[in-house]
Design a protein that fits this description.
single chain, about 140 residues, 6 helices, about 70% helix
C-alpha cells in the first residue's frame, strides 16, 4: 500500500543512502575527501588479512554496491545493509579512541538507514499477498 504521508521521507532517505555511499565509495580510491585509512582502528589494522589500502578499496566497492542497490529500488534490503555497515563503522571508530563525534554521527545515520529499510516496503512495489483481492472470508482449514 502506497502512503503519500511517508513518500517524501522515503525519497529523501533513498537519495541520501544512494548518493552518499557511492561518493564515499569512489573516494576510497582517490582519498580526495579524506585519508580513509586514518579511520581504521589499530585493532582492525592488526586483524586485516590484507593491507589497509586494499581493505579500503574493498570497502569502497561495497559502499558503491549499497548505493546502487538503494537507488535501484532495493532499499528494503540495502537499507538494512547500510544500517549494519554504519554501526560497524561506529564501533571501529570507538576503538580508535578518537573520532567519537564521527561515531555518534554514524550511529544517527544507521538509525536513518533503519528507517529507510522500514519505509521501503511501503514504496517499493507490492507483494503478491498485498496485491491479491480480499474477499473478507477465510478459506476452510
Amino acid at each position: 500500500m502506497h502512503d503519500d504521508r511517508t513518500s517524501t521521507s522515503y525519497w529523501a532517505l533513498r537519495l541520501v543512502f544512494g548518493i552518499v555511499p557511492i561518493v564515499a565509495g569512489l573516494d576510497k580510491f582517490t582519498n580526495l575527501l579524506t585519508n580513509w585509512q586514518d579511520y581504521l582502528s589499530p585493532l582492525a589494522v592488526r586483524m586485516l588479512p590484507v593491507n589497509p589500502g586494499t581493505f579500503m578499496a574493498l570497502v569502497g566497492i561495497i559502499e558503491i554496491a549499497v548505493g546502487i542497490g538503494v537507488l535501484a529500488g532495493w532499499a528494503r534490503i540495502f537499507g538494512w545493509v547500510a544500517a549494519g555497515w554504519l554501526l560497524a563503522i561506529a564501533l571501529d571508530l570507538l576503538l580508535t579512541g578518537r573520532y567519537f563525534d564521527v561515531a555518534a554521527r554514524d550511529v544517527a545515520l544507521a538509525v536513518s538507514a533503519f528507517v529507510l529499510a522500514r519505509l521501503a516496503p511501503l514504496h517499493e512495489g507490492v507483494t503478491a499477498r498485498e496485491a491479491a483481492p480480499s474477499t473478507g472470508t477465510r478459506a476452510p482449514a
